[in-house]
Amino acid sequence: xxxxxxxxxxxxxxxxxxxxxxxxxxxxxxxxxxxxxxxxxxxxxxxxxxxxxxxxxxxxxxxxxxxxxxxxxxxxxxxxxxxxxxxxxxxxxxxxxxxxxxxxxxxxxxxxxxxxxxxxxxxxxxxxxxxxxxxxxxxxxxxxxxxxxxxxxxxxxxxxxxxxxxxxxxxxxxxxxxxxxxxxxxxxxxxxxxxxxxxxxxxxxxxxxxxxxxxxxxxxxxxxxxxxxxxxxxxxxxxxxxxxxxxxxxxxxxxxxxxxxxxxxxxxxxxxxxxxxxxxxxxxxxxxxxxxxxxxxxxxxxxxxxxxxxxxxxxxxxxxxxxxxxxxxxxxxxxxxxxxxxxxxxxxxxxxxxxxxxxxxxxxxxxxxxxxxxxxxxxxxxxxxxxxxxxxxxxxxxxxxxxxxxxxxxxxxxxxxxxxxxxxxxxxxxxxxxxxxxxxxxxxxxxxxxxxxxxxxxxxxxxxxxxxxxxxxxxxxxxxxxxxxxxxxxxxxxxxxxxxxxxxxxxxxxxxxxxxxxxxxxxxxxxxxxxxxxxxxxxxxxxxxxxxxxxxxxxxxxxxxxxxxxxxxxxxxxxxxxxxxxxxxxxxxxxxxxxxxxxxxxxxxxxxxxxxxxxxxxxxxxxxxxxxxxxxxxxxxxxxxxxxxxxxxxxxxxxxxxxxxxxxxxxxxxxxxxxxxxxxxxxxxxxxxxxxxxxxxxxxxxxxxxxxxxxxxxxxxxxxxxxxxxxxxxxxxxxxxxxxxxxxxxxxxxxxxxx
Length: 755
Ligand code: ADP
Ligand code: MG
Prior knowledge:
By secondary structure, this protein is of the alpha/beta class. β17 (567-570), α22 (576-587) and β18 form a beta-alpha-beta unit. α13 (308-316) packs antiparallel against α15. The chain is globular. The protein starts with a helix and ends with a helix. It binds adenosine-5'-diphosphate and magnesium ion (MG). Magnesium ion binds next to α15.
């Protein structure tokens, strides 16, 4: 079957000459989208395993099976190098999108080149001179001519160029030209040697610039991708035409062609938009399928929501539930009463009272004769939850246990869990390790979900015996709607959009480092009034050890500054008994100022703490800053937050905008206490990739789509995907789409489709 790929060289050796462009246009003609009915009819005999007949186009599944070595020019060592760099198939090559494009449609004489903007000069090398004014500096000056006037291009520390650009070489060099002492000079950004075979790819057109892959250079990549594209077209389109029309999307075939080698200086928007849609549509299909499977396949417990335990618990609380809490509990109980396992996200502002809601869910399981579990991302938080929930459980006679990596009487806790002598267990990852057996787990709460991946969610769910436990995922970091549609897209969402009465927003100010004394004076003031304060240490790097060292040093320094006060220290490297002791002393009011790392970020509940000082605040993410601030003002007194930073922050009138260096976040931080605004700003400032990746392993990468800016396509893709899965749950009647998911999403696709 590969014969046609290697053997048929009709177009493979050509560059963009007349013949190949006619091949190209016949391709796009063939690439026209098919009517819906035809796609449906054809899909059951999908061509993925065959040659990919040209009338229907070649599917990505088909292209994923053609090894990269089969592409003209990649038979030798380059194919191997690409493979090592992760580009294994023709499909991978097509998905290696350009980082940018250079407009070389025009070829102005040097004398007419506009100054000060990026242009391409095409000419012949007439002179190359190399100078070495200093040991570590090589300057190569290349003089080009366009037949009339000279242009001088200066390269620094690229000595090999002297060999690559001998006199007489035809080159296309892009860069910015200026007139220096009467002569035209260019600061080069991209150099392409023109030779018969490549010239058509790098001059007289819009030229793609690729990230090099495992040392395979620009020229080779361009040729390889161009060849691969020629031989792949027409590329089949599995997306129903109705959808393409409704969203005004171009064909997949055209989109791949235009994103790599646009015919002329065209707007790349439509190609990018189409391929971004594909990414989002695949993602949403996968999520829709997963959600459907979760509902259909798994058998959940029908909990008893009327028994008296939850009622007794709510009556034992010293306050009235907010309306939002009441709604949340009834949504959750409706899920729990049904035979489908719950997959629900509970999100709400810091301090909105999620713990009580989670407890009501756990106690619903207990009153139905089952066990509940709470999984938290850190030991400190697990202990905090345990300490916070235990008295409430004691009140209603429910037995609660704690299991973390450092639980001393581990064996007896394990046996109590297995023997059903504990009703609710709070813990860390330790809960999902082997050797932990529940007698009847039927309700699992995961706190601060973004630190766990999908896989861990599944592992916890599997701790249930014959039935899947209901799952409630709590996050204190509000999730922008776009993320709720992607990273959390298979969950139902409950929002606590109301704060308990009497809470005032934490007043926040930003202070330059030179004025840090103002912050320390504020600390003394609060302590004098009987309150307590936190000082969060600079985030040195991601290593807990280094962070701990910085906390130790800062603790020593602040102990001298606050000579008369009790200054405590908390960081992740402390033994857990020590951590517990510190938290106990803080809760008891024995510590005035707690110097800590971000271990206190989540969940810490000290009602008497009113001041949060954050050092080097520009180093933290917005959501993280918001979390930190949420640790104060939780009792009867309002909270204050002082962020110390030497970042040169600036205000813009656009509100939430990404500042290249990320420091804009402090402005936003001080000006808004709305977690949603901050979460969205955070997403904009940080790279979405890291956000999606960190928050939810198992969610595919988005290369082109930007979930904030492509919000409309995302919403449409989600709606279409869920509608399709509703009528064709495992895409049995849309095999092309299913194959598309499987091959493009790779491992995460397998996971989504089979979990
Ligand atoms: P979070 O949503 O940040 O997890 P918590 O559940 O820790 O919030 O609750 C924050 C504080 O508010 C706790 O001290 C809790 O006792 C208190 N609280 C919760 N619900 C109410 C309510 N309805 N009225 C008054 N206080 C409440
Ligand atoms: Mg909480």
